[in-house]
Amino acid sequence: MCFNRRRIPKHLLLQPSPPHRPARRVWTWVLGSLVVLLTVAAAEIARADVNPEEASAGSLLFKTASGYRAALHHHSEAQVTIKGMLARVVLRQTFENVTDDWVEGVYVFPLPEDAAINRMVLEIGERRIVADIKEKQEAQRIYDQAKREGKRAALTRQERPNLFTQAIANIGPQEKVVIELQYHELVTYRNKTFSWRLPTTLTPRYIPGVMKQDTDTQVSLETNSGWGWAQPTDQVPDAHRITPFVHPAPQPDTNNIAINISLDAGVPLAQIRGAYHELSIYKLGNGHQITPTQKHIPMDRDFEMQWHTVAGKAPDAAFFTERVDGEDYALLMVLPPQQEPSGTALPREVIFIIDTSGSMGGVSIEQAKASLQLALSRLTDKDRFNVIEFNSFHQALFHQPVPADANALQQARSFVQRLNADGGTEMAPALEEALHYPAAEGYLKQVIFITDGSVGNETALFELIHQQLGDARLFTVGIGSAPNSYFMTKAAEFGRGTFTFIGAQTEVAEKMQALFTKLESPVMSDIEIDWPVPVEAWPARIPDLYQGEPLLVSAKVNGTWPKQAVVDVRGRQAGNNWSRKLAVTNTPSDAASHSGIGVRWAEEKIAVLLDEKVRGRPEAEVREAVLEVALQHQLMSPYTSFVAVEETPSRPQDQAVAQAPVPNLLPQGQQAAPLMYPRTSTSLLLNWLLGSCALVVLMVLRRWRATEVSHG
Q: How buried is 163 (Cβ within 10 angstroms: 0-12 exposed, 13-18 middle, 19+ buried)?
């Protein structure tokens, strides 16, 4: 249980007092008692067999007659092909059973939130079994049946757009099994910088709500539950599926990845660099081969590669095409011209929200505070502002936004400097506080939300933003080495703002400077596209664009593309009309094909359909619409899964199979927080030890209070 200082009555807080011998004796006694108790507790935990419900920052667990022990080792390899704006990734996950028993592996892992997964293969020795895409319930039924029959099987299902579960049934003694996933995604292009990012671990999500007690939602080890540390709640009914345990530190024999990248940027490059890893770069013809200098890197932070073009060679427009099964697809990119702030923009009312929950401990809170201090320094005397911090509770610095004068800014800087990370992640009240009132007349309201996004109730928060945003704009700043980028990206999308990712302290100044430029520059709005043929394009309604952001639209061509086609893009910027005519000399059918355009279009359509749930469309209608697209294009979705099953049984029916969850690594720079992993059962001795510690603390408080009174 985490306490918030603001909620503890003042008379219970330990206040400094003049030194005196009774107080010293109290503390000597208390520290000695705690040392004894904690030593006994450590000995008990070290001696006992590991229980999956009591595992701190989890372990690889396998049930044996004497308890639980390590069962699976996990390694990954990513083969990445980047061509222009598109990346194709083949991710191979190897699971090695190091026991003499049969196990079922369960691995909850992250991928980019826009990954379009369209292929899965189960590899056992020389055998390769290509998976089928099925409705989620049917895929689960097929997998469960194969598991009971002793057949090797694999099931890949989506828990969130950036979080997936991989289950592998009946891995034999001393056997290796490989799961191969293929997905396509867009390269990020902002502020004349290209980047590609691969998440490798996740920040443990905070699970709000009341634990469900009905038996239908309880975690069952007979089903593919994921063996998460949390139980389902009324706000996060799938909490047990999205809360894998984590190793507190990199392990020498598991959870590492090799990354090999083939880069064909299509333009001359001035620089290629790794944001968080050293890279080895080799020039091959018009492209580059890139790997991390360390061949196998620990999966404890996002991997990101950036590349910059030679001066004057940055693209301002591009058109990519692909023909799939006789149908033509296209991807349009246009970069509107940059304009400097005119100096006549409306004054701003800026509300800063900073996450001070326990998951922000360590390096993350320092990055967040540095980001906020920089943001405060950019306010002018024309602006108004407020600061809201939240963990289990929230607190606003001022009762309402105040002018950004020297006195208010100094109060804010002192307030931010004193912030520490602790407690839960109750985002909704802080967001409501920031959004519920309109800006003062004549002011442009902007909300800057600094967090790692580690929550499990994303959809409810999206609904809150959609319903209460009003005329405000919400900008998210992702903090830490493994933030929940799905939440951050989608929250900014519903908030009609942008997402900025800060993965290291050295990036704070550069990334925040880019954000300030967006906040202070004119927005490109009222964007329309005239296509030379009928198309089904996504997004159908184009959002506003901020400085340095490209317009990206995926389209399915429904007509005959003319030989000399022109795509006309129009919009308004700083009150002026803007247009760009893009001549496309190659038709989709005869242009050089770019693999992945078709699945990217389908993935975009699925994302838009899912957003309609947040806006009030019945889920049954959304489900049917998503299924039609996902099954046609063989795509993973919230309603479809990949399942692969071997033809003949391998496990003898008289031998049992046990689940072995594969934990992630704790993100680099974060502090291990064992209190965030609730226990559902605790040993009698450990209960006694914890109770004794609590009793000691209570006695200290009472004796300290009595000492104060006697010396008062």
A: buried
